Amino acid sequence: MSIQKDIQQLLQKYEEGTCTPEESLQLQQWLDGLATRGKEYVFTADERRSSRRRMLKNVQAGKRAGVIINIRQWAIKTAAAAAVVVMLTAGGWWYQRAQFITISSNAALAVTRVVLPDSSVVWLNRNTAITYHKGFALNRRVQLLQGEVFFDVKKDAQHPFVIQSGDIYTTVKGTSFSVAKNHYTNDVKVTVVTGRVAISKGSDTLAVLTPGKRLRYVEEKEKAGVDEASPAEANAWVKGDALLQHAGIMEVASWLHQQYNIPVENLHRGNDIDFYLSFSKGITLQDAIKIINLVGAKHQVTFFVEQNKVVIK
C-alpha cells in the first residue's frame, strides 16, 4: 500500500474520531516530517471529490467543515480533515478532534510550555507527545505517548489529575513532578518536587512518593523501585540543563535520542552501569559523548557516532 493511501486512511479515521493515540501520533510525525522537508501532501482528484462529499455531509449535519492547514513551509488543503484544527505552539503544535487534543514538542526546538484547561501547566521536553480529553476540566487525565513532561498541577480535590504512561498511572490532586517514558525500553520514571504522588499499575499501588523521591518502573521485569533524587532531575531540563542520577545505559541512550533526535544502537552487554551525568544548556552531541565516556571509562563502555547514529560498545 502506498504512503499516500496510508495517510489518506489515517485522515479518514481521524475525521471519524476512530484514530488510536498511536495512530494520531503517527499522523503527527508524518506532518512534522513534511514541515522539516518543506513538502506538501497532494491529494488525487478522487480523494478531493470524496472529501467534498464528506464535507457536504458534515455541513448538512451542522458540523464544522473545511480547513486549510498552513504550518511553516507546507500546507494541506483537504476536507478529509474537516474536523481537525491545527495551531502552532511555542516549540510544537497541537491538533484537535471531537474527543481528544494531542500536543507535541518539536525535536528541533526547545521545551514547550502549555497551560491546560484547568490552569495546570505542563512542560514538554523535546520529542515528547501527550494527549488528553477535550472535556478535561471534568476528566483530568493525560496520556504520555512518548518523551518526558513536567507538571505543575492546580489543586482540585474533587477531580484528581491522572497521567497514564503505558500501564503505569500517576495520580495527584495538586503537586509538581515529572514523568519520563524511555524511548527504547518503555520504562517509566516519576520524580516528585512538591506534594504527594500515588503511582499504580492496574489495581496495585506501586508507591506513594513525597518530595525528593523517585520511582522507576522497569517494563521488561515488571518491577518498580523507589529511591531519592534531586528536584533538578525532574525539572532542570525546563531551563535547558539536564541531570541524570543513577542512570543505566538505556536511560542515557533515551536521553541522547530525545535531545539530539538521533538513533542509538546498544551493542554493550548489560544495563547495570550507574551513570551520574550533568549537562549544561546548549551542549553539543560531541561534547555530551565526551562527558559520558569519561564516566563510562571505568566500566569499559564507549559511546561514539557512526553513520548518523550513536553506537554503544
Automatic annotation (TrEMBL):
Q: Where is the signal peptide?
A: none
Against Pfam families, the record matches this protein to:
FecR (PF04773)
Task: Write one Gene Ontology MF term.
Answer: sigma factor antagonist activity
Segments passing through the bilayer: 74-95
Which keywords label this protein? Membrane, Transmembrane, Transmembrane helix
Cite the Gene3D superfamilies for this sequence. Answer: 2.60.120.1440
Q: Which domain of life is it from?
A: Bacteria
Q: What is this protein called?
A: FecR family protein
